[in-house]
Amino acid sequence: MSDVGYLDSEALRCLQAYLPTNAGTTRADETISTSSPAAQPAASTTNPKKGLPFVTLTYAASLDSMIALAPGARTTLSGPETKAMTHYLRFRHDAILVGANTAAVDNPGLNCRYPEATLLDQPRPIIVDPNGRWKGIGKKAYRLAAEGEGKAPWVVTTSRTFEKKSRLHDIEGDYVIVDEQDSNGAIDWEGILRTLFVRGITSVMIEGGATVINSLLARPELVDAIIITIAPTFLGQGGVAVSPAPTTAPNSGERINAAWLDQPLWKQFGNDVVLCARLHK
């Protein structure tokens, strides 16, 4: 039996406008009024001109915008209601993506435990690992795939660190090679997303960690929706913060806001508050 409960109909109505329409199905207990504006799905799952998947950026943070007490410290922020929401979001996406540090430190299962979810409903775990840190063996995502409780991970890496012989292939996982770089010499997000789309991934739920989140907040053209769980707590100084790099106006060079949110919707889930929005392009 799943340790995750169903979302109620009101919670589902709030989420629908910010979700892709390709993955997951409406279950019998999910009664959603299609006449409600909040029940209308996103206009399209993908942009065929760009050839990119629908991207949902989602994470849990404290009131001081921290996602962990300290670097390398696994920190639980979501209550049971927002935990259920997270697994519902996983149910509605083709893939879950995290960075290599999150995969190594948090050791997430990267599977979906929403009630009645089958193996076919499971999202594809994707780990962005340009430096070849994540080996898989002994990790929860690897074990769940081997036991048939999740799909096998794909590891996004570069041709420089690609391992032709890997235990990842034993569970039908794979490597996704992306050699495009951004202006800072890091693996390029548009290159990652375009490659995933070519491989059949039409929607991606990006869960962290902070480096991944901050880099994508600076690329609003790549993000279709943002869903943030805000826990009623302060983690304090020295934590790991979601805070994108400073931004300056192109003409004056003056400091401006790093990111804006459009169409915000706030909903209380138990003791947590969830913010659904779109990044201003």
Which labels suit this protein?
alpha/beta, 5-amino-6-(5-phosphoribosylamino)uracil reductase activity, riboflavin biosynthesis, 6 helices, 281 residues, Dihydrofolate Reductase, subunit A, 9-stranded mixed beta sheet, two-stranded antiparallel ribbon, EC 1.1.1.302
Provide an overview of this structure.
This protein has six helices and 13 strands. By secondary structure, the protein is of the alpha/beta class. The chain has one domain (9-18, 50-279): 3-Layer(aba) Sandwich (Dihydrofolate Reductase, subunit A), CATH 3.40.430. The radius of gyration is 18 Å and the shape is globular. The N and C termini lie far apart (42 Å). The model is unreliable at 25-46 (pLDDT under 50). One of its GO terms (molecular function) is 5-amino-6-(5-phosphoribosylamino)uracil reductase activity. InterPro entries: DHFR-like_dom_sf (IPR024072), RibDG_C (IPR002734), Riboflavin_Biosynth_HTPR (IPR050765). Belongs to the HTP reductase family.
Any chance you could write out the topology, listing elements then pairs?
Layout: H1 9-16, E1 54-61, E2 66-68, H2 80-91, E3 95-99, H3 100-105, E4 124-128, H4 140-146, E5 154-157, E6 174-177, H5 189-198, E7 203-208, H6 210-217, E8 225-230, E9 240-241, E10 247-248, E11 255-256, E12 261-269, E13 272-279
Parallel strand pairs: 1-7, 1-8, 3-4, 3-7, 4-5, 5-6
Antiparallel strand pairs: 2-9, 8-13, 10-11, 12-13
Enzyme class: oxidoreductase
Pathway: Cofactor biosynthesis; riboflavin biosynthesis
Protein name: 2,5-diamino-6-ribosylamino-4(3H)-pyrimidinone 5'-phosphate reductase
